[in-house]
Structure of F-box/LRR-repeat protein 10 isoform X2:
Amino acid sequence: MPGPKALFLMFDVSIFIRHNFARIWTLASRNLTTLEIGYISSVMVTEMLTTNLELQQPHIQPPVFPKIQKLSLSVDYITDAMVGTISKGLVSLTHLDLRDAPIIEPRLTFDLTNSGLQHINPHGKLKHLSLVRSQEFLVTYFKRVNDLGILLMADRCANMESIFLGGFCRVTDSGFRTILHSCSSLYKLRVFHGTFLTDLVFHDIRATSLSLTHVSLRWCNLLTNLSVKNLASNVDLQVLDLRDCKHLGDGALRAIGTLSKLKVLQLDGSDITDMGLSYLRWRVIGSLTSLSLRGCKRLTDKGVSVLFDGSSNLELQELDLSNIPNLSDNGILSLAKSHAPIRELRMRQCPLIGDTSVMALASMQVGEEEGWQGSSLRLLDLYNCGGLTQLSFRWLKRPYFPRLRWLGVTGCINRDMVDALARSRPLLHVACHGEELGTDPWNNMDEIYVHDDDEVDEFEQWLLEGRGDDDDDEDDDGDEDDNDGGGNGHGPDHDEVMNDAENAEAMVE
Ligand SMILES: *[C@@H]1O[C@H](CO)[C@@H](O)[C@H](O)[C@H]1NC(C)=O
Ligand SMILES: *[C@@H]1O[C@H](CO)[C@@H](O)[C@H](O)[C@H]1NC(C)=O
Ligand SMILES: *[C@@H]1O[C@H](CO)[C@@H](O)[C@H](O)[C@H]1NC(C)=O
């Protein structure tokens, strides 16, 4: 049987005894092209690869991973030694994805420096490079890399299509500009914590031949509207992540409003207002599949309504409206009326959101005519929504929200109801401690990720059990789930839903 081509070890492999671990790899398939490891120490990476290199000469044994093209590792420290061995040992590499999360400030011998960067990509074959220092345990950056390191790396970057640099706090405009002006195949650029990155980086981006489709600039606090204006010359932009760039305002949205191919837009924590959102109404909202406005505190219902009222054929699947203090049920009602095929809705920490929103969403209809009736939501985050009462829990029971898999609520207030709900919907993950729901820890939208769509969800199960062929909704309150212990009475029937939602709408009008 031929060995696997791809190996994903999405766990902490350091639980293996080191010596054995290195030997395991001599058994690894020589055909392996992809290796991804959830956690491994940098010492182990170096050992694993140097053992193989040393074996090569005396025993004339070829390297163990001759064909690896994609390597993705999460480590304790990205070090020069580790990067050097990877570059030497893996000659076919096209994708290199390294992430670290130091628990103490790295010392010189345990850190990445300009010299390490110089050794990355010796053969110029890399297409994708990702080097990220995450701040999971400690606020820490790559303090030993400056513009020189980037300059040396950019020397061989003509084939690079995607670059992700996270935590390079000493790199300035001239380093980042070098990337834009040297890496002529680049179409994806991500920079996190670009502390010194200013508008000057994009000032003459029109002079390059680049056509960027993915741009992510997170925690780049010196950026203003001007950068976004210049970036918008990349008319094919599909993904624009500007989270936590707090000086961006409506001027940025005006430029974004021209990007008719945009699918993903993230503006968390920016200074935009309702007026700015109206720029998205004409060319952008129709193509967006994901929009995040979390923590844009100047927004109100008016902005949300401007986006959704009268829009048709929306493709929006993910929406984050969390932490918007002036957002109320009225804003959610206009979303509910929009027929958007929404799958994930986050609106945690909104003090004015209450039961009316839950009712409206429960009776939301997707698709203009032939679409199936009922909410398409798979994820709903209502954690710390100020206006929720026990009434909402009646609408979170079956048969409402048939596809729901993730629900965030404030647990301590409604403990009994949360428990009863969790019991009656075993496929539903109910989170009540404020955990973020369904987030991908690698935050890596363009790489391989696990699909859970293969599993049967409640809606499908309901169909399989033969309850899907009702010709209409009237006999829906058969209430098969009688193991639902704590509920006080059954859920309201569908007509009641519609009426309440209509009433709620009438209230708005
Ligand atoms: C590698 O692939 C070749 C050709 O597909 C196959 O014949 C061989 O058995 C594979 N080797 C291993 C160790 O899986
Ligand atoms: C740019 O953004 C800021 C928000 O920080 C805003 O005050 C300013 O008016 C914007 N400029 C333009 C031209 O829109
Ligand atoms: C939000 O609501 C408060 C209280 O009603 C009001 O004072 C404030 O101006 C509102 N903010 C915005 C951005 O409309």
Summary: Confidence is low (pLDDT under 50) at residues 441-456, 466-509.
